[in-house]
Amino acid sequence: MAKEKELTVEERLKALYQLQQVNSKIDSLRTLAGELPQEVKDMADEVEGLKTRLTNIENEIKECETQISDHRVRVENANASISRYREQQNSVRNNREFDNLNKEIEYQELEIEASQRKIKHFTTELEARLADKAKTTKDIEERTVDLNQKRSELDQILAETKSETEALMLKASDLERKIDERTLAAFKRIRKNARNGLAVVKIERDSCGGCHAKIPAQSQIDIRTRKKIIPCEFCGRILVDPEM
Prior knowledge:
By secondary structure, this protein is mainly alpha-helical. It folds into 2 domains: 9-27 and 181-240, no CATH class; 34-167, Helix Hairpins, CATH 1.10.287.1490. 75% of the residues lie in helices and 5% in strands. It contains 5 helices and 4 strands; from the N terminus they run H-H-H-H-E-E-H-E-E. Strands 2-1-4-3 form a 4-stranded mixed sheet. The longest helix has 84 residues, at 95-178. It is rod-shaped and about 125 Å long.
């Protein structure tokens, strides 16, 4: 296959300027979405965070219910033991046995008091967790509605600009193939670092069209001859003459 003809400096400059124009149009289309992509991401993260919180709350509810149930069983068992000890007191043979059973009854009564305090504590906790669950569930529902609305807005904007963006990206790819790797790499590096995405700019009123720094007269003459690629000595953007 025949080797492609190497572009002249002027042809490279024209290709670079055209590539810049195409990329600027793509940037403009993407700007239509504004902050929506980030808003959608932030809202999606918030909903996921709320869902994680809801899962933790539900686990805490289960733990409270388990504790309440366990302590209720302890109260029932303690009451059963008290009944059994009192029955045994009716058939004791001496005061020592009676006193020992009394101590057992007192111990079980203390166990009942302790369990009842635990039941009260975990019941209060349960009520609080149930309230948290209701609020978090409501928050999830409300934020999900907002998220779906924002996603719908973003999808609509992307759908409206999709075909035009794809056509421009295809044109950008065609232009990139015309530019040597070294120059293209420099273009992409400058564009990435430039605040407004401009890597190639015209001279405007004897100044750089990017940073507005004054361009020396000799540099302007060199730029107009289109014999070499000249960057702005202040911002590094590639400069082209106004007639490009």
